[in-house]
């Protein structure tokens, strides 16, 4: 399994509805970059998300939750390795959250693109009613902020509204060189929540694919090196709220319950609602693979299955790989820690 190439963009993307363990995956990859020495090739970590999604990872058994910063460079900063964080033109910024995260990780240089969208109190309030409230989203103000940007309101972007924040935050037009150096990119939220998904209008405010992340950073597709796509054994959606549903599922899956699975209910990182949970959809997996063409598929929450069903699940993914004529490698995670992640070739060696 080749985890890294010495140049180009290495991208983490979600293959379902979100909360697939992208933070854990990015931390694992950062750890592997340190272990193998590949970290010296990385000149930046790019994020185009907003505070409507959160990424969780562990470092030395300490839990870290991010809403604005990319996990990869944040993990490296905890190891005293400086790889700057770039919030691209597609990023959506809550100034208060970014300020808190920047102060938490003061050794991390953070460069904000002038065209990144800025969330206001009015944006958050606007999502408490109307069509955005009816999709039962996170109500973080992300969609409303993007709407103002699309309407060409000058104050909607960082160039006019970021202001002075932490000393390690700099407003800068990014000039990355993936033709010479390696960069890491994290795409926010879940593939099936993309605005062009057939689940519309129960979706987020933009596409959630590798190509969208590259477009937001204005990086040509030919500079994409590796794609790492995260999925989970039991996909989730954000919980319903105030009588509004967060949306349907694929036709080959059904909604279940945490009691039936036999695990403690999960709480959404941003909204703190109990997540809805469903059976795995192979149709969704095929859609995500064809849209993102992963080099590595990361399977999280494998510990939600017993040993027999774990083996069957991996075999199903391997069969799907053959049927699609794809050539991705597989990583399996039985927990949120770096040591919980195993490569495909090591899974059966332990038995």
Polypeptide structure, described:
With 351 residues, the chain is α/β, with parallel strands linked by helices. Helix content is 29%, strand content 20%. Strand 15, helix 11 and strand 16 form a beta-alpha-beta unit. The two termini are 20 Å apart. The mean pLDDT is 92.
For the structure shown, list the relevant keywords:
351 residues; alpha/beta; ten-stranded mixed sheet; three-stranded antiparallel sheet; 12 helices; globular
**How many β-strand stretches?**
17
> What is the structural class?
alpha/beta
Q: Can you tell me the residue ranges where pLDDT is under 50 for at least 5 consecutive residues?
A: none
Instruction: Give the biggest sheet.
Output: 10 strands, mixed
Distance between the termini: 20 Å
Q: Beta fraction of the residues?
A: 15-25%
Order of helices and strands: EHEEEHEEHEEHHHHEEHEEEHEHEHEEH
What is the mean predicted local confidence, pLDDT? 92
């Amino acid at each position: 399994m080749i985890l890294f190439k010495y140049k180009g963009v290495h991208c983490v993307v979600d293959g379902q509805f979100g909360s697939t363990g992208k933070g854990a995956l990015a931390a694992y990859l950062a750890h592997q970059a340190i272990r193998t020495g590949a970290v010296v090739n990385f000149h930046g970590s790019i994020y185009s998300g907003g505070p409507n999604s959160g990424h969780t990872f562990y470092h030395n058994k300490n839990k870290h939750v991010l809403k604005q910063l990319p996990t990869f460079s944040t993990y490296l900063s905890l190891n005293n390795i400086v790889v700057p964080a770039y919030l691209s033109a597609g990023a959506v910024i809550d100034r208060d959250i970014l300020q808190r995260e920047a102060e938490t990780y003061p050794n991390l240089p953070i460069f904000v693109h002038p065209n990144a969208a800025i969330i206001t109190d009015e944006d958050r309030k606007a999502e408490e009613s109307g069509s955005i409230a009816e999709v039962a989203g996170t109500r973080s103000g992300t969609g409303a902020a993007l709407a103002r940007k699309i309407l060409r309101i000058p104050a909607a972007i960082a160039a006019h509204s970021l202001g002075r924040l932490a000393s390690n935050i700099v407003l800068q037009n990014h000039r990355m060189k993936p033709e010479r150096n390696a960069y890491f990119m994290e795409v926010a939220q879940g593939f099936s929540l993309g605005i062009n998904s057939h689940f519309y209008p129960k979706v987020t405010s933009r596409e959630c694919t590798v190509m969208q992340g590259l477009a937001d950073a204005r990086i040509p597709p030919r500079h994409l090196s590796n794609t790492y796509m995260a999925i989970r054994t039991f996909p989730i959606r954000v919980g319903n709220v105030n009588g509004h549903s967060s949306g349907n599922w694929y036709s080959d899956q059904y909604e279940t319950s945490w009691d039936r699975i036999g695990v403690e209910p999960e709480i959404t990182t941003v909204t703190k609602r109990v997540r809805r949970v469903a059976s795995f959809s192979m149709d969704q997996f095929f859609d995500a693979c064809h849209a993102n063409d992963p080099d590595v598929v990361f399977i999280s929450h494998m510990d939600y299955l017993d040993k027999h069903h774990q083996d069957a699940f991996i075999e199903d993914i391997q069969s799907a790989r053959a049927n699609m004529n794809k050539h991705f490698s597989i990583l399996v995670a039985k927990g949120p820690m770096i040591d919980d992640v195993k490569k495909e070739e090591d899974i059966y060696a332990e038995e």
